[in-house]
Design a protein that fits this description.
The chain is of the alpha+beta class and 797 residues long. It folds into five domains: 9-145, Immunoglobulins (Immunoglobulin-like, Sandwich); 148-375, Jelly Rolls; 380-544, Galactose-binding domain-like (Jelly Rolls, Sandwich), CATH 2.60.120; 546-654; 655-797, Heat Shock Protein 90 (2-Layer Sandwich). It contains seven helices and 40 strands. The strands form seven sheets. It has a 17-stranded mixed β-sheet that branches. Strands 27-26-29-24-32-33 form a six-stranded antiparallel β-sheet, with no helix packed on it. It has a five-stranded mixed β-sheet with strand order 31-30-25-28-35, with no helix packed on it. A hairpin with a 2-residue loop joins strand 37 and strand 38 (730-737). Helix 3 (552-617) runs antiparallel to helix 4 (624-650) and helix 5 (657-672) runs parallel beside helix 6.
């Protein structure tokens, strides 16, 4: 028979015996309890009988409901008044039949090594020792014992639940909590995210690893209030405690984790759901977390009374995980039934691992784990607190500064940085800007592995607050290949550089005048209790490659050389200008000399020739004086001709090859005309703009005159060809006749004529080539290099 409500087997027995009890003068109360009193048997007051009372119930049976698994234990207890003296007997009601439990004759019933057959209802019967007919019983409390589930991925999940009496009655679960063997006994979490003190400021996260050895602290319901401080608030809802990470210190090889026990509950059935996922990391990969298992235990609470839960994770092969370095609890997945849950104790049991696993074990290789089974290092796990300056005002800028050191001879495996600021920030590392953002609801994640190297590094955050709350939150995790990871978090150790300080982003030490930062709130607390909406990851940052030409020493040398070059250039430019001016002055002086010679000496000699000719005309024709005077006049005319040559050479207006060619051709024509030798001229039109300075013109004129003179005297030619042309940067002058020719090898050494020709050309850097054979004429070529044309001031006529 199934029992309902509070109607227990003992009460049913009392009702069946009601008639007998009334006959003997006993009174049965509505609750089923038997009470004493007096009755008048004769119908008057002559006979009165005193009836003994049953024991008085002070506290009904607790726990009101119990759920356990095979091998577990549970303790029921109730309290009766022992006046009058009572006899106690625990009973188990199964299929409507109440059976006394042998030896269970106290107000406490301890059931150990539970089996499925132990399921049923349990009550305590109390009998008045002086009258066995005075009986009182507690409410029948259900116990459900279930078999252990099979293991999943090496994890067996053992659950247990108990409920209280409801109302304001104090409830203490009957299991015993000991923390002496816990690997995290008395330890604070290495990292916590969220507000674990939600709804009650007195709640402390240290309760989860408390070092006491007593029972679980009670979970009470004070008129529906949840102000109790003996548990913390976790869950997936806004602001609740979200993540907890515990490091297992003390063993270089890590720990073999054997079991995990989590206690929880609430003042009612609304938040007694245990829902979380457990991850672990090993000593070979402390930054990479692998999934151990998930818990999703939502016990029934029909009376909506105080509820206590216990979840134990066991292994199918003796160890949940080996070489464990840290354990993480993610209370956001799976989600709690209404977003919140109460947790009162976490116990991790295990022993130091015997040895390290082989390198690159699949369990320690992030690449070998699927996303569903892994929990890679997340920036939210190592974020610090929200910090700001000691004073906050709108449109405020804060310069946050911090240094950290990577030990020498350490190689960085990975480095992850996450930051946010209310409202804007510019982030620098070692003077290099690596990120900026203008929305505090977006936490930015940066992979700075390639920027990390042994030595001191400088972090600088230029944060700006537009209005209202202001804060900056920061976390940096540097995972080393050998050694504990390095973490830098935003806290009061950061410095605030005053406004106006130059190059504060690269300073390696902070002056005493820099103020320490002020902690405004912890991660997950108001006004920043929202989890980040977007966690954006940037591509891995690389160091700025400094080429040798970007280094300071190279730039100093380069600019110094540039300065010297500029000075040399200006010096050369000044010299060139000076030389240009000197050239201009020289040309002007040449023009003045030519003009003076022409106007003075030329006119005087011309006057002498005229006077001589007049005098000569007045003398007799056969006069000796007249003949001598004629010779003098001829010599004077020759002097005039020489002066014309000098004037031509001095005149700066005739410094081009075209002028030179015109003069040479005119000279050859006049010189050859008396000899009856025809002269043919070939002049290259490209000579018009080429420059011919005074030495070149003078030497070539002398060479051509000497050549024409030899032609007239020795060649017996009837024709001379004079060719003047330009071949690239050389001037070529060729004089060729059709005379009798000669053998160049037969010419006697030391002859000045031909020797002078070659010497003149060598002085100009050129050459003289003579080609001749007897009977085949003669050809003489003069080749002279030309200078590049230079600009100069042309004198006006």
């Amino acid at each position: 028979m199934i029992l309902d409500g509070n109607l227990n087997f003992c009460q049913r027995q009392c009702r069946l015996a009601m008639a007998c009890l009334l006959f003997h003068g006993f009174v049965l109360t509505a609750s089923g309890e038997v009470t004493g009193g007096q009755i008048n048997v004769a119908g008057d007051n002559s006979t009165a009988v005193t009836v003994p009372s049953p024991p008085t119930l002070i506290q009904d049976t607790v726990p009101a409901t119990a759920f356990a698994m095979v091998g577990d234990q549970v303790t029921f207890s109730a309290v009766f008044s022992n006046s009058p003296t009572a006899i106690f007997q625990w009973q188990k009601i199964s299929n409507g039949v109440a059976m006394d439990i042998p030896g269970a004759t106290t107000m406490t019933l301890a059931l150990t090594h539970l089996q499925v057959a132990d399921s049923g209802y349990y009550q305590l019967k109390a009998v008045n020792a002086s009258n066995r007919q005075a009986i009182a019983c507690t409410s029948a409390r259900p116990l459900v014992v279930d078999g252990k589930p099979p293991g999943t991925d090496n994890v067996i999940t053992v659950v247990a639940a108990q409920t209280g009496l409801g109302g304001t009655t104090l409830f203490t679960p009957t299991w015993t909590v000991t923390t002496n063997n816990s690997l995290i006994a008395g330890s604070s979490p290495y990292r916590a995210m969220g507000n674990f003190s939600l709804e009650a400021p007195g709640r402390n996260i240290s309760l989860l690893t408390g070092g006491d050895t007593g029972a679980l602290k009670v979970i009470t319901n004070n008129g529906g209030s949840t102000s109790s401080t003996n548990y913390v608030t976790c869950g997936s809802a806004k602001g609740a405690g979200a993540l907890l990470t515990y490091r297992l210190a003390g063993s270089k090889t890590g720990y073999d984790l054997t079991n995990i026990v989590v206690y929880g509950g609430w003042a009612d059935g609304n938040r007694d759901h245990q829902a979380y996922t457990v991850y672990y990391s090993t000593v070979l990969a402390p930054a990479f977390f692998r999934r151990l298992g998930s818990v999703n235990f939502n016990p029934s609470d029909p009376a909506n009374a105080q509820s206590a839960t216990r979840v134990t994770l066991l292994s199918t092969n003796g160890a949940l995980a080996r070489n464990v370095a840290a354990v993480k609890f993610d209370f956001t997945s799976p989600p709690s039934k209404n977003g919140y849950g109460g947790y009162s104790r976490i116990i991790l049991s295990g022993a130091p691992s015997a040895a390290l696993p082989p390198p690159k074990s699949p369990d320690d290789n992030p690449a070998s784990a699927s996303p569903a089974d892994s929990y890679a290092l997340n920036g939210l796990d190592f974020l610090g607190s929200w910090i700001w300056d000691s004073k906050t005002f709108d449109k405020q800028t804060c310069h946050f500064w911090k240094t950290f050191v990577i030990p020498p001879n350490k190689r960085v495996r990975s480095a992850l940085l996450i930051i946010s600021a209310d409202n804007e920030y510019v982030l620098s590392l070692d003077g290099q800007v690596i990120g900026r953002m203008d929305d505090w609801r977006q936490y930015w994640e940066y992979d700075v592995t390639l920027l990390m190297s042994p030595g001191r590094h400088v972090l600088a955050v230029n944060a700006y607050n537009s209005a209202q709350a202001a804060g900056m939150i920061f976390g940096l995790h540097v995972d080393l290949e050998d050694g504990d990871p390095i973490e830098v978090q935003s806290d009061s150790s950061w410095k605030v550089a005053p406004e106006g300080v130059r190059h504060w982003e690269t300073k390696t030490t902070a002056p005493n005048t820099w103020r320490p930062a002020t902690v405004e709130a912890e991660l997950g607390q108001s006004p920043w209790d929202n989890l980040p909406e977007v966690l954006k990851a940037s591509p891995p940052l690389t160091p700025v490659k400094v080429f040798f030409w970007q280094t300071a020493w190279f730039q100093m040398i380069f600019f110094s050389l540039c300065g010297i070059t500029l000075l040399a250039f200006f010096s050369m430019f000044a010299q060139l200008a000076l030389h240009q001016k000197e050239r201009w002055l020289l040309q002007r002086e040449r023009a003045r000399i030519a003009m003076d010679v022409h106007d003075d000496i030329g006119s005087r000699i011309t006057q002498l020739v005229l006077n001589g000719e007049v005098t000569q005309a007045g003398l007799p024709e056969n006069s000796k004086a007249r003949a001598e005077l004629g010779e003098i006049c001829d010599d004077a005319r020759k002097v005039l001709s020489s002066i014309d040559e000098i004037l031509w050479a001095l005149n700066p207006r005739l410094d081009t090859l075209q002028d030179f060619a015109d003069y040479i051709c005119d000279y050859a024509h006049k010189y050859l005309e008396p000899s009856a030798i025809n002269c043919r001229f070939e002049v290259d039109p490209k000579l018009l703009l080429a420059e011919a300075d005074l030495p070149l013109r003078r030497s070539l004129l002398m060479a051509v005159k000497e050549t024409l003179n030899n032609t007239v005297k020795h060649s017996r030619a009837t024709e001379v060809r004079l060719k003047i042309e330009r071949q690239r940067q050389h001037l070529l002058v060729r004089v060729q006749d059709n005379g009798r020719g000669f053998d160049p090898a037969a010419i006697q050494p030391g002859r000045n004529g031909l020797g002078n020709l070659s010497r003149r050309m060598r002085e100009l850097g050129g050459s003289c080539h003579i080609t001749s054979q007897p009977g085949q004429g003669c050809r003489i070529e003069f080749s002279i290099p030309l200078k590049r044309p230079r600009r100069f001031f042309k004198l006006k006529k």
